[in-house]
Each structure stands twice: as C-alpha cells, then as structure tokens.
Amino acid sequence: MSQKESKQEKKGSHRTELYTEVPARCLPIVYSPEYNITFLGLEKLHPFDAGKWGKVVHFLKEEQFLTDDNIVEAREASEEDLLVVHTRRYLNKLKWSLVVATITEIPPLLFLPNFLVQRKVLRPLRTQTGGTIMAGKLAIERGWAINVGGGFHHCSSDKGGGFCAYADITLSIKFLFERVEGVSKATIIDLDAHQGNGHERDFLEDRRVYIMDVYNRYIYPGDGYAKRAIKRKVELDWGTEDQEYLQKVELHCEGALNEVRPDIVVYNAGTDILDGDPLGGLAISPQGIIKRDEIVFRAARRRGIPILMVTSGGYQRKTARIIADSILNLQRQGLVGCGAADEAGPSLAPGTACGPVCAGVPTPAR
C-alpha cells in the first residue's frame, strides 16, 4: 500500500490488499476468473448461471472493449476485510457445510467436506466481494466503476441467504466511509427483482445511507422488518413490462438523487427482471434492461456523482449477453469508458487516466 493510500485510512483501520493502487492503463472494471463456480456440476442444481461473469467478460473482449491488460484483477476479501461488517460468529457459521448449503440453496453441499465448500463455493464469492470493495474505491477515483460480479444484497452482517454469503454492498460502503476522505453519504439504487433486505438490515439505523429499492412485491424475501430502511420503495406487480417499469425507474431515480446528493451511488443491476426469469416474475425485455442501466448511469453522471455498478441476480443463460450489451451501450453513450465525462462536466481531474490509451496517474480518492 502506498503512502498516499495509507493516509486515506483512519486510525485503527486494518491493513487491506483491496485498496492498492490500480495502474493507469486499466479501466475501472473489476473481474477475476475466480468468480466462476464450477464444482462437479453441483452448481447446476441452482438456477443461477454460476459462470455468467466469465461469459460477460468474454463478450466484452470479443467487442474489443476489454483486454487482459486493461481489466482490474479482483482480489479475495480476507477475514479481516469481512470483519469490517460481518460478525465473527457468522463467519464461523460458514465453516459448516449445512449452513452454506442453506444459503446457496444447493442441498448436496451439506454432504461435502467444508474445505471443499470453502475452496469451490465460498472463495469465488469472497473474490467477488473483494471486487466490489475495490470497485468502490475506483468509482471515487474515476467517476464510475463496474464489478462484473457481486451484488449479494440478501446478506447482512450476521445472516446470509438467497445465494448471498457475504454483504459486499455494505462492505464497499463501510470501507469508503472509514478510509476515503470526503465520502460520508451513499445512495443504494437496488433494481434487482428481489428486495435487497441484506443491506437494508445493515443500514436500518444509518442516516448516511439512502436506499431506493424497486422489486416484485410478491417474491422472496418479503422482509417487512428490512423494508423500514427503504427511503424510496417501489413495489411492482407480477409481469410488469417495459413502459411502466422504465417510467418508474426514471421518476424515482431522479427523485432520489434530487432528494439527497450522495458522495457515491451503488447500483445493484440485477438482470432477474428479464421476461421469463424463473425467480423474478417480471417481464422486462433485453432492450428494457439496457435502457434501465442507461437511465441510472445518466442520472448519476449528469450530477457528477461517482457510480459503482454490481451485477447481482439473473437466472437465465442469456443474461450474460445482455449485461455485456448494456455495458457496451453505456460506452456508446459516453457514460463509461476512456474519456467518459459527466454531462455537467468531467468528473475526473485533468490528467486522470481511465483506459489503455490514456496517459497520467489515477487521482487519489477524495
């Protein structure tokens, strides 16, 4: 860790490998091949496509937006990193295969030795969690960042569920609050089809965090206690389609960012809103998802607010292509990529790099 970065840490913060300097040639897009879960075919017992993250990167490389040289390699979150939010009691529970089988909804895991479950299931999720924390810092430095994984919004400090074992959204925000000067308010815009009860429980009493959540009111988790944390709640009916959905997203996204101006937006961009998703129950088209992401990025960039996107849920094989197409659309719109600028003016300091053809050194976190 550089001297510059160490100055960002408040007294008492633990030493972390997740806030190291990122080369100027890299786009603020975080990924590791370790994200993908492959384990004797057991991952196929859950509807989640446990290899979708690698497919997204493959498609972005095919379009020559990403290369091995300009992507940020995610690092695994250490136990000390996780303890910033999680209780030690909860982390110890994950040493029981039964607990992990329940959280991931893959029952056969309970019959496997925990060292295998740790290596093949939890390590990928810890690496994605590290990626979200890294992307939070990058978003402040570069104006935007995308973690190709993450978005485990059903996990709170002491409880996992819904395929979410680590509270990466809470962790990324807590890291920023603790380590980066000038970051004291955050807005979570959660557009996964499911209620984000994990981060809602974590920030229930925290006035620094404004939560907007748009979800199918009839599906998991139906957490009434956690709903008390939502400042802008939009509950959808079964089969909601593009026109109604996009109108509500734009109206409430603009409203949320007008109501409170945060230092960062954390955007949980689940694709389980896609028509035909077995768990989401909504009917949004691929074009609707692409437009949704554009609406959120445009609202943040127009105001000069850094935005971190995580990819969250999505339970059809075609979602990886849609995520890639959405990122490519954000590039075409000038909302991400080298030289992307806020509509109200560039968010990056002069000389700040954001891609392989730029020159300069990343600005320190504000």
From TrEMBL:
Q: EC?
A: 3.5.1.98
Q: Which GO terms describe its biological process?
A: epigenetic regulation of gene expression
- CDD domains listed in its UniProt record: HDAC_classIV
Any one annotated GO CC term? histone deacetylase complex
Q: Name one GO molecular function term.
A: histone deacetylase activity, hydrolytic mechanism
Q: What parts of the sequence cross the membrane?
A: 96-116
**Reactions that this protein is recorded to catalyse:** N(6)-acetyl-L-lysyl-[histone] + H2O = L-lysyl-[histone] + acetate
Q: What is its main location?
A: nucleus
Indicate where this protein resides in the cell. Answer: Nucleus
**One family name in Pfam for this protein:** Hist_deacetyl
Tell me if Translocase is a UniProt keyword of this record.
no
Looking at its record, which EC class is this enzyme?
A: hydrolase
Establish whether keyword tRNA processing is in the entry. Answer: no
Q: What InterPro entries does this protein's entry cite?
A: HDAC_classIV, HDACs, His_deacetylse_dom, His_deacetylse_dom_sf, Ureohydrolase_dom_sf
Q: Which family does it belong to?
A: Belongs to the histone deacetylase family.
**Function field:** Responsible for the deacetylation of lysine residues on the N-terminal part of the core histones (H2A, H2B, H3 and H4). Histone deacetylation gives a tag for epigenetic repression and plays an important role in transcriptional regulation, cell cycle progression and developmental events. Histone deacetylases act via the formation of large multiprotein complexes.
Subunit structure of this chain's protein: Interacts with HDAC6.
Name of the protein described by the UniProt record: Histone deacetylase 11
Native organism taxonomy: Eukaryota, Metazoa, Chordata, Craniata, Vertebrata
